[in-house]
Amino acid sequence: MDIRLSVPAERERLDDLTVAIAAVMERHAIAQPVIDDVVLIAEEVVCNAADYGFDAGQEREIVVAIRAAEAALHLQFRDNGRPFDPLAQPAPDLDADIDERPVGGLGVHLVRQLARRVDYVRDGAYNVLDVTLDLTPSETGDAP
Amino acid sequence: MHLEIQTAPRSGTTQRVALFGRLDTHSYPQLDAELAPVLDGGDPPVMSLVLDLAGLNYISSAGIRSIFKARKALTARNGKLLVVNPQPQIQKVFDVVKAVPMSDIFTSVAEADAYLDMVQRKVVSGDEDE
Known about the structure:
The complex is a heterodimer of chains A (144) and B (130). Chain A has 144 residues and is of the alpha+beta class.
């Protein structure tokens, strides 16, 4: 599986992206829990980019590439917004009293926890976020 | 399908709300709006909110924030938010962000009701004026 999807980085268009991601992964017989993780990661990354990444009036585009290889699933999010490193945000303090905790920062934390690794680079005019997930043999439709 | 919300008739100071579908960045305002009158109180105010998640398939951080807000509003008046029957994706996200203490998650509505009855009996027997 090696696919590339491009959508405007806007909350209103998020469904177009996640529905397409889920459909492609289902067609490749990827296990539902993995699809859930990928859809969740896509929602969190695209929402962050849409909220923080763009200047008013700027054309917003985000390209998502998904590639399955051996025991891993590689996701890459590439947007043309201003430099924004989601990994530079402070981690939420999950051990603080639940009722005292601020409610922000959870999206990036979820992405980090669900992924094996997450890397950010600024590549020219683009923010590039690479997310790698573990894929066990039973989760890959491509396995023999 | 997105989010469907079923609010049961109130039973004493306990309100049960069942969620179906997806609680995410698109649908969380719907839940906030539905819960607003519950959290505003009433007379007497709702003290226990039971969220039945058996029919909920997906939650993201936006949905978690709605549940956090509801929990904060209730605990501010010594109320409780209980969660019933979270499906695997929901439980996984709850675990990762420690959204709800394990002791407030139940595997059935009956179990949550029994717990609330027990809490209620303690409150009544401990309050001589009632």
